[in-house]
Design a protein that fits this description.
Length: 65
Amino acid sequence: MAKVSPIQFFRQVKQEVKKVTWPDKKEVNQTFLMVVVIVAIAATFFFFVDQILGWIVRMVFSLGV
C-alpha cells in the first residue's frame, strides 16, 4: 500500500465526505422512533422472561428445602 502524506489524506477524506448522502430530518426521526419502540419491546420481553425464570428458580430451590 502506497504511503500518502497527511495533507493528501485529508484531501481524499474531504472528497469522500462530499459523496455521502446524508439522511433528512424526517428519516432521522422515523429511524429514531423505530429504535426506541424496538428497544422498549425487547426490554419488556426480557423483563418478563427474567421474572418467569426467577420464579422457576425460586420454585426449584424451595422444593429442595
